[in-house]
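Quick question, first post here. What does this chain look like in 3D?
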Amino acid sequence: MLSALVRRAGVAGTSTSSRAPSLVLRAVFTPLVTLPTPTSWCRSFATKKAKKKQNAAGGGATLSARDLPAGLDLSKADKAASAAVTAYKSHVSKLRISGQSALGILDTLLVKSEPKGPERPLEQLAQISAKNSQTLHVNIYDASDVVPIEQTIADCFFPMSTSRTAPTVLTVTLPKFNHELREKLSAFVKSRAETFKVRLRKERQKALKQVTKHPGLSKDDAHRGQTYVQQLFKQREAEITQLCEAKQKEIESGGGK
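> Answer (accepted):
Ran it through. Tokens below.
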């Protein structure tokens, strides 16, 4: 029958009867199921892979604390994340770029009074005041902190000279601002941003461990909790990045110059 159809399809003519066999052939050889092409299959696979990666990274719909399963309290993680952003914002806001100097540079320094002791902010150990745009006075509360503070200032990335005008009073002279100092200060701002991001990552790991060890959570509830944590800390990291870029832009433009 098929050979007969083929022979009839080869007969020339323009009548309806001569076109009928070719229509039959097309009906015979048309596949019932259209198979995907290699290109469309690869595109579909890539899309699924991207969605899977996005979900693993906390993508998709943004979750809030209301979406968490009952009994799973992640308020401490939320507060820790917000505190890190607030601390960094306060940290960089003290770098008051004014014309030819960077007032507030001392407020960002951390002092270690003892080799194995904790680092403490200089602003907690002394009263810092500005005599003018190039000169700062440091009135140290405890005489035992004078030498560690002098050493901290000497080791600072920002070149400053110090002199003792009294047993517990230091006069700090800031250099005039130039392109090189702007680059150093911008790099310092970025390095501090990375420090606070590391702090965020540690808090994120604590929160994820809390979700994992929470008793009675179903697989879906645990996944929802982990997604919430990922999204929360990803947002806070983005906020620190924005603060960093804004301060770097201020430094590069000369601030109030």
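The chain has a mean pLDDT of 78.
The radius of gyration is 34 Å.
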